[in-house]
Amino acid sequence: MRVKLAVAAVLVVSIGLLATPAGARPSGTWWFRGVQVMPGGVVRDGRIIYDHGNVVVIPAVTDGFDTCLSGYVCLFADINWGGDIVQFTTCCAWNNLSDYGFNNTASSWRNRKAVDAQIAMGTDGGGSKLCLNNNDYASSMPSGWDNGVSSIRIRDAGTYC
What we know:
Layout: H1 2-19, E1 30-32, E2 35-37, E3 42-44, E4 47-50, E5 55-61, H2 64-67, E6 73-78, E7 82-88, E8 95-96, E9 108-111, E10 117-120, E11 129-132, E12 137-138, E13 151-154
């Protein structure tokens, strides 16, 4: 009897998985390679994609510095461009890092855009701000900024800061 119940349970779960549409994700909180996938995130090619590719989260990588794509501003969870990465490409609006599971996480950065970017301690650009100059990088955050960034915005001018 127990064997029949176990087989039935496996069949029910299997049928449920087969009935799930391609690209659909489980409801509620879920994780991909140790990174929380926030609402709106789609897992593709080992990355979590938001807003049609305007924001990309890459779970822990070994070669982080070169993983930052050209045309993006990247924040890394660890110093020396290690750990999880969140990348942004579109300009002008403040992006809250909590929307991508990256609030108070950044420890290094790289700007691979021809325009400046800013990070802020508070959500929606509130609090202290720090410039991330175009085509520049830092292997660690300045004093007081490590694991303290809550929002980022890409500027529309190369030398805003």
